[in-house]
Design a protein that fits this description.
Elements: H1 14-22, H2 36-54, H3 69-87, H4 98-114, E1 150-152, E2 159-161
Antiparallel strand pairs: 1-2
Amino acid sequence: MTTPVASGTLYASVADLRNVLSGTDSGTGTAAQLTDDQLTLALYTSSNRVSVYAGNFYDSSVPQADPPPILHDLTLDLACFWAAKTYMKFKVIEPTSPIFIAYQNAMQVLQDVRDGKVDLGPGVAPGIGDETGTVINRIPAIFTGRDSNTRVSPETGVLEADSPFWTPRTGGLFDDSAIYQG
C-alpha cells in the first residue's frame, strides 16, 4: 500500500484511533490491526468530512484556527467507521454496531452544525465575568478619616501615618517627621 497523500489536517492521531479501536483485547480481531497508513486514510477521510460540515479548515495557523475539542471526538467516531469498513472488506456493518451508531451520531451532530443548530466552539457561560460587586457596610458611620491615624500628604498625594487629631502631630508636615535611628 502506498503512503497516504496528506490533504487537509488531522483532528485526531493514529495512536488515538488505534486506542479507540483496540478495545480491551489489545486490538485482536478489530480494525486496530490495520496498518498506520490505512488508519491515516480513515483519519483523513473523517477529518476532511468534519471540515466540510464545519465550513472551516482548522489548521492551528492562528489562534482563531485552533480546532474546537469536539472535532477530535467527531473525527474518531467517523474514523472508526471508515477503518471498520476497510477491515471488514465490505462486509455488512450491522445497524446495532456501536461503530455504526457512533458514526450516525457524529454525522447528525455535523448536520446540525451545518444547519446552524449547534455551535462547535462552546463560549463562556452567560453572565460569567459580568458580575459586579456590591459593598455592604454594616458598620455604622461613626468613624471618619480623622480616626484612621493616616492622612494624604499634600506634597506627594501618598497616604502616610499621622497622629489622631486630639494629640500633637508627630510627623509628616514640613519634613519634621521622626527619623529612625536604628
